[in-house]
Amino acid sequence: MTDEENSSAATTSSAALNHHQNHLSLYDDDGRPKRTGTVWTTSSHIITAVIGSGVLSLAWSIGQLGWIGGPLVMLFFSVVTLYTSYFLADSYRVGDPINGKRSYTYMEAIDNILGGKNFIFCGIMQYANLYGTAIGYTIGAAISMMAISKADCIHSSDGKNPCSVSGNRYIIGFGAIQLIFSQIPNFDKMSWLSILAAVMSFTYSLIGLGLGIAQVAENGTFKGTIAGAEAETHAKKVWAIFQALGNIAFAYSYSNILIEIQDTIKSPNEGRTMKIATKLSIATTTTFYVLCGCIGYGAFGNAAPGNLLTAFDKPYWLIDIANLALVIHLVGAYQVYSQPLFAFVEEQVAKKWKVVENEHKIQIPFLPSYNLNTFRLVWRSFFVVVTTFISMLIPFFNDILGVIGALGFWPLTVYFPVEMYIKQKKIPKWSGSWIVLQSLSMFCLLVTIAALIGSVAGVLLDLNTYKPFSASL
């Protein structure tokens, strides 16, 4: 072989090697496209999932528990959520935290570590919870849009018109928005939406906090009592405490999508990044929760409303901004909770019919090209339409969501993470660590049962005045 031929062969070999290396740089160790998530994108996903409209009900919750019980319960659940989230983060890879087998979903983590019927039980709890949350967020967003419309109507009439507002058109409007956003292919492509939603959650929380501080200043004192709001009977007091415990516990819950969020983090050592993001996010949300809850209770005392924003009617434009920020946040939160369900269905269907993986590139003017998947378009649109219809049919679904949340809190946030941690770390039965972890699990089970009782009671009360398609404000 001549020198020229040797040189040509070497050049070809070098080009092939470079091409192979460039190809590998686009993919992770499991052959999937390279994940790009960071501490900040992960934190935005978590904050979007955790700081929901539930933050506005925390003043009422503290009102039922009192000045001592309320903050203590909030801190307790923040610590529980933090440590069980650490357990879950360690469950993303089986065995070796760097090179172990990945679990792409919560269900896969259960299957890989615990196996058996746990897999099926987890799937039912997780996806029922995700679907119920999507419906609850649709109703919550509609209520905020109705509040904006009603406030503007009352203001324009100088308070002479009570302005009753129907919610169906707002539910449909929110559904139409989700028809578009539901076509975002996966978690990894929606970091920008999560960041926007996280900013919006801070916006309405800060407005609620600011209005509460102004009300405290106007009152000249902090209202509220050590024991919290009084009730007509002891039974009703216990009832209210159950509901408050449930509200606070579920306000921290995002475990049902933690593994899916962790699967967006770039290698190596995704567990370490997830723990840092979790610590940052839980610290941030706890600070906001304690401030909003305590300031709201201090402003209105035992008369604190279920939604802090409804306690204010001036300045109406600032309250409108808060409600608008809440709507934008719920647009992103809806997607954060729906994407795992979308991915699960599409993965199961793809195993049987490969045709669902076919994509068609569409060039959109002034925007990057979009890969249209026909199955994704039809299935996700169907999901949004059904969600929207149920939201109109049962406008008190937030209480049913409380039932679903109560059923899902203990198994998804505490039981499974604890059991996977015990299995992975090989903690001996009846050892000190085992007893502490099981005691924590049992206590949280009791809280779940109490919250479930309160939520079921709320649904029964709603059924007494139930009218289909009757959402109004």
TrEMBL record:
Membrane-topology descriptor: Multi-pass membrane protein
Pfam families given in the database record: Aa_trans
Residue ranges crossing the lipid bilayer per the database entry: 42-62, 68-89, 192-217, 237-259, 280-300, 316-337, 377-397, 403-422, 434-461
Keywords, in A-Z order: Amino-acid transport, Auxin signaling pathway, Cell membrane, Membrane, Symport, Transmembrane, Transmembrane helix, Transport
Isomerase listed as a keyword: no
Cell compartments where the protein resides: Cell membrane; Endomembrane system
Keyword Zinc: no
Top-rank taxon: Eukaryota
InterPro entries: AA_transpt_TM (IPR013057)
Domain Amino acid transporter transmembrane: from-to ranges: 35-460
Main location: membrane
Role description: Carrier protein involved in proton-driven auxin influx. Mediates the formation of auxin gradient from developing leaves (site of auxin biosynthesis) to tips by contributing to the loading of auxin in vascular tissues and facilitating acropetal (base to tip) auxin transport within inner tissues of the root apex, and basipetal (tip to base) auxin transport within outer tissues of the root apex. May be involved in lateral roots and nodules formation.
Family: Belongs to the amino acid/polyamine transporter 2 family. Amino acid/auxin permease (AAAP) (TC 2.A.18.1) subfamily.
Record's protein name: Amino acid permease 4
